[in-house]
Amino acid sequence: MTTTTRAAFTAAATVMTAWTLVTPAQAAVPITGCPALYVLAVQGTGQSAPGASPTSDTSVLGELLKPVVALGPNLVQRSYIGYDAGFGGAVPGGGAAPYATSANQAIRLIGDDAKQVAATCPSTKIAGVAYSQGAQAWSEVAQEIGDGRGPIPADRIAAVILYADPDRPAGAPVIAGRPGQTRPDAPPGTNGAAVSGVQIAGRPVGGAGIGNNGQGYGALTGRVAEICAPGDLACSAPDHAAILRFAARLVAQADLRNPIAALGSLNTLLTSALGAAWTTIVGNDFTLANGTIDYTPRKSLSQRFVDAADPRNPAPTLEQTNAANARWGQITATVAANLIVTLPKLVGQLAAAVGQIAGDNADLTNPAVWAHFADTVAAHTGYASNGQLASGIAWLIACAHDLAGSHP
Predict the structure, then answer these.
(1) Separation CA 187–CA 224 (nearest Å)
(2) SS3 of 130, please?
């Protein structure tokens, strides 16, 4: 394994903190009366556990919500979603579940709690706040809600504030989907008088979340903030770092409790991902017509491998695998029937695709890029100390006042 590849796997395992564990039904959401705003918070890796106190203000999000809930229970209430918060057993405080399993558990629980709040209090709006692994979970729920596929309608969401989101879209501005906008949209059903005075701090950063799946927020656009500190690899991984993204997706599914378990788990995952990628490539990226064969990729080789390693993408079915095997037989027969003409052309097309892999990973060999991420752990864990919580606090307070019709 090259130094670059080892660095990619290490960085992915160290920094990427978000991706379902089947657990008993969660207890009812702790809600008293019906506040103007109810906040569902999801902590990061190692900061939560099944059965954790839903009202204990700890870690990064505790610093965010303490001044918000001080408004009083008529305006704001909150609960923290207790989930495994695991990274394959490798992170202190986190459970033994792989990262992907843990985050999917959080996704399910966010949906369950949102539905409970919406059913209990039809007039209460919901806000989401989340950090790191929790941010990836809330990000996926927000994408579903914005697309009309979520657990509640989009008009029940007042705000979603994501810190260090590994699912952050490429180049996302602070207000996701609204380049140049720094003031969030008004909560649904209000004139936004208080929210109009809030400006979300933080400048846009490059790259994308290390687990980004390229989705937007649909009907929630304008009410979702992506807060990412410069140098935080979790939410701003470089654009040309396909190996890093591939590694992150494998590590997210692995058992990392000890070196032996990790090696065995990663070997199994790697074999499966390579097989899935090849099945997809054969089934989609070769064109057979009139006795000729061409490699005409719909996606680059790098992206095919990244997609195949992503646990959110289903593995090829047996039918798809069999179809790819049959198609490969057709490809080899076509080449064999006209070897002199078809083989050099096909080899040239495949060589060009392989050559593109170097460009897809160019940032990993750039010393300036690694210098930018030299202090990535501090960047990832510094949101409570770098002043980036203040505007989130102000936004939630303003939402509560607007929803209650009591803005200062």
Answers:
(1) 11
(2) strand
What is the third-level CATH fold of 3-241+376-404?
Rossmann fold (3.40.50)
Model confidence over 268-306: pLDDT tens digits?
A: 988 998 999 999 999 999 999 888 899 999 999 988 988
> How far is it, in rounded angstroms, from Cα 394 to Cα 255?
40
Q: What token pair was written down for 77?
A: 């209430």
Considering the entire predicted model, what is its pTM?
A: 0.85
pLDDT tops 50 at residue 9:
no
CA distance 76 to 404: 10
Residues 243 and 355: their CA atoms lie apart, in Å, by: 14
Residue 49 backbone class (left: φ over 0; alpha: ψ -120 to 50; beta: rest):
beta
CATH 3.40.50.1820 residue spans of the chain: 3-241+376-404
Which pairs count as long-range contacts for 254-259, CB under 8 Å and 24+ apart, including other chains?
254/88, 254/98, 255/88, 255/89, 255/96, 255/98, 256/13, 256/87, 256/88, 256/89, 256/90, 256/98, 257/88, 257/89, 257/90, 257/96
Torsion over CA: 147, 149, 155, 158 (sign): negative
**Nearest CA-CA partner of 270 in 244, 248, 243, 250:** 250
Helix axes 339-360, 318-337, angle to 10 degrees: 130
| Whole-angstrom distance, CA of residue 347 vs CA of residue 358 | 18
Of residues 97, 32, 373, the one with CA closest to residue 210: 373
Cα–Cα distance, 403 to 189 (Å, whole number): 8
Q: In angstroms, rounded to a whole number, what is the distance separating the alpha carbons of residues 83 and 98?
A: 12
Longest dimension (CA), the chain: 80
